[in-house]
Amino acid sequence: MKYLSKLLICFICVTSFSNCKEKREEERAPESTKEWIQLFNGENLNDWVVKIKGYPLNENVHNTFRVDNGVLKVSYDGYENFNATYGHIFYKTPFSSYKLRLQYRFIGNQANGGEGWAERNSGVMVHSQSPESMNINQDFPVSIEVQLLGGLNTDEERPTANLCTPGTHIIMNDTLVTTHCINSSSKTYYGDQWVNLEILVIQDSIITHKINGKEVMSYSKPQIGGEYNTLKTRKGELLKEGYISLQSESHPVEFRNIELLELDD
User: Fold this and answer.
1) What is the pLDDT of residue 15?
2) Which of 6, 64, 144, 243 ranks highest by number of CB atoms within 10 Å?
3) pLDDT tens sequence across 174-196
């Protein structure tokens, strides 16, 4: 009887902890009176804007960004050499408080001339500057990057949904973080499997990353500053809204089911 009582107490404690954690998640995300919207229609790149380093706005060099069988593909079969022509495809509208979810996967081989660190590497940029405001030779928009990585070697951990900060800083554990990239707590994903990503963004308050339903990173106070900052006069400004973009960094990657739920401020 005592043994059963102890089991019952443990069960209640675990259940209570789980419920409290879920409640905290709900409390920090504002209620939404809106519905999920499809940012990508699965048929074409309508509502998206392309910016590739060294080229004018909306010049989709070598058909880098394309649609095939309901998937938004980042491809390099038209490149002889990647040559640091980093690219981004932006959704046309900026957002402030929202949940973004999508699926991604890495496929094939890296383009010739791609940097070693860019193998099986891409990203989703949030709170980004507009594509129109980027310099023609700018590598990356000033933004918060949810860095996507795929596993390379089975004996080497390589988490995904990490944080990189091109032209930005953030606050984590009440400390200003100026390190350019920080690993998440996610596991490593190998091969060409689809991975579920969800990002919660609440103005300049909090940003969290989830992989396959599990939170792997959280931070706050995104602000302008640091490496790759082309907005020098706005250093220290908190980012309350911005554009969303998907990255081209030399390894083929696919995205699908890109949808967004706006949250009430």
Assistant:
1) 45
2) 144
3) 999 999 999 999 999 999 999 99
Contact 137, 105 (CB under 8 A): no
Q: Distance between CA atoms of 106 and 110, rounded to whole angstroms?
A: 10
- Using DSSP, state whether 116 is helix, strand or coil: helix
Residues 110 and 1 in one domain: no
- The answer, yes or no, to whether residue 14 has pLDDT greater than 50, is no
Q: Which domain holds residue 161?
A: 33-262
Query: In whole angstroms, what is the distance from residue 180 CA to residue 210 CA?
Result: 20
Write out the two tokens for 170. Answer: 């953030």
pTM score, whole prediction? 0.88
pLDDT, tens only, 71-81: 999 999 999 99
Q: How many domains does the chain have?
A: 2
Residues 18 and 115 in one domain: no
Contacts of 247 (CB under 8 A, 6+ apart): 74, 86, 87, 88, 122, 123, 124, 125, 140, 145
What is the rounded distance in angstroms from the CA atom of residue 244 to the CA atom of residue 241?
10
Q: CA 47, CA 147: separation in Å to the nearest integer?
A: 23
DSSP 34: S
Query: What one-letter code names the amino acid at 260?
Result: L
